[in-house]
Amino acid sequence: MLTSISKIKINVLSMDTLHHRFQQFQKTIWFNIFCYLWTGIFSFLAFAPVSLTHFVWIAPFGFFWLSLKYHGKYKKLFFHGLLIGVVFYAISFHWIIHMAITFGNFPYVVAILILLFAGLLFGLKFPIFMMSFSFLSGKIGRHSVWVAGFCGLLSELIGPQLFPWYWGNLAAGNIILAQNAEITGVYGISFLVFIVSYTLFQSNPWHWKEIIHSKEKRKQYLRFVTLPALLLLTFIVSGIFLFKKWENVKPVKSLNVLIVQPDAPLSFRDGREIKESIEALMARIEKLTDEGAVRLGKKPDLIVLPEAGVPFFSAHKTEITTKVRRMYWDRFDSLMFLLANRYKANVFFNEIDAGFKGAPSPRNLRYYNNNVLYDPNGDRRDSYQKKFLLMFGEYMPFDFLYELSQQTGRFEPGLTHNLIRYYTPRYYTLAEKEKSPKGRHLGWTDTETFNHEAVRSYYETTRTEVSETGKFLPLICYEVILPEFVREFRTAGNPEFIVNLTNDKWYGATTESDQHMELGRLRSIELRRWMVRSTNSGISANIDHLGRFVGNKKQD
């Protein structure tokens, strides 16, 4: 019997061979593209909605590789940093294309150019980091790990941003690390990201052989990693302590909050008459409120509608909104009044308001993105005008750009950082509490025959004394993702909770709504306040003081 034996030759590449090949690869233009994609892809994977947070620790490797390759060549570092910004925006913020088409009515080609422009301008934090890191690490070589943290922080502080995000947000998907935002803010977590990332970068496999076989190299390596490891351990221990501490802190009172997500249209381009579309919307708001109250199983204390939940109109009856610019709609005003009286609840909603900046004249007419609260009697109370306006959405940086985008608003920023007071009805007898108006509540369809004065008169007998219960922090849209801006409200007092009204419908079924919510989530941790997030279309949710979602998230 003959037996044939085949010899199988297996080539195992040594670590030295791999290192050599990688060094050769670094000399090619393909390596630069590899670095762009490395940072862009791993950053996206670490960010919402994918939220594979552990990838944030290796995402900055692309910066470090290019900083070493072009050390001291600042023009090249600037150029490659810009390209990383473009790739990052194309992968993570691709929804800008949808926004430009939907919001600005731009053609697809122009929308792509807007995305590229956004990556070049608002991705400047990347070349800022690479240039400053190359310069300072050359001057302070042996402390380069701390230089990485400093430069990462510097780039986030001075780099311009339209949609402000921070490396700390990517790491804050880890609920334990996120707790440190109470002490360090998001910037402290960003600092940690770059410290840990550079430590891992310098702990690459090419050095393992030397470290294993050389006692001196082992000592050097241990000296290098000890402080960064202690810093990471400090953040972990601190996060655990803060989590346990605040987990045991229970709210001193509770509110029944009803969030209405009406999916209001962005414009009236579907062939229906404006009157038909807007009336269908108002009927839907009433229906959703009634259905939500049934599911809640108890009387709501606060009914919240999102930004642009009723678009294009105002419920504020003034000479300007009724005569100068006819935005006031009494049926809008009446529906908010009816919802407040039907449930004896506070109603917090968004509207467009108007005023003059200076002397009354068409040239001085200004518009405001306004939030307002109606108390349980339906009386208009505190309002807040949006201060941080969205470029290209609510205003253009240059007047000639309005000709390119007719839909872009001409809004004026508000002037004050104020909290919103809310109220509780006071009943002295059971009969007073159960008193109802003339047999039945009025509905949306009744406002077609009842003007606003008649609606108010109908409920006159059910008016009751109300008392101020507390205050909350009102934030509109992107204001919630700006840590410095939110801190400016400290002078207004101590809010009990946060209410964020937003409209993510401009971005369609993209990752923007997840990213927007994730960026805003840290405000709950920083302030240790619960947040009510109401969006017209996207993700509405309740977030507790630990940054956790409470109950079900509503997403359309």
TrEMBL record:
Cite the EC number.
Answer: 2.3.1.269
**A Gene Ontology cellular-component term:** plasma membrane
Q: Determine if Protease is one of this entry's keywords.
A: no
| UniProt membrane topology term | Multi-pass membrane protein
Q: Which UniProt keywords apply?
A: Acyltransferase, Cell membrane, Lipoprotein, Membrane, Transferase, Transmembrane, Transmembrane helix
Where is the chain membrane-spanning? 29-48, 54-70, 77-97, 103-124, 145-163, 183-201, 221-243
Any idea where the CN hydrolase domain is?
Answer: 255-556
Which InterPro entries does the record match to this protein?
Apolipo_AcylTrfase (IPR004563), C-N_Hydrolase (IPR003010), C-N_Hydrolase_sf (IPR036526), LNT_N (IPR045378)
One annotated GO molecular function: N-acyltransferase activity
Give the pathway annotation.
Protein modification; lipoprotein biosynthesis (N-acyl transfer)
Query: Which SUPFAM superfamilies does the record match to this protein?
Result: Carbon-nitrogen hydrolase (SSF56317)
Subcellular location(s) per record? Cell membrane
| GO BP of this protein | lipoprotein biosynthetic process
Q: Pfam families of this UniProt entry?
A: CN_hydrolase, LNT_N
For whether the record's keyword set contains Membrane, the answer is yes
Job of this protein? Catalyzes the phospholipid dependent N-acylation of the N-terminal cysteine of apolipoprotein, the last step in lipoprotein maturation.
Question: What family does the database annotate?
Answer: Belongs to the CN hydrolase family. Apolipoprotein N-acyltransferase subfamily.
HAMAP family for the chain:
Lnt
| The protein's name in its UniProt record | Apolipoprotein N-acyltransferase
Whichever gene encodes this chain, its name is: lnt
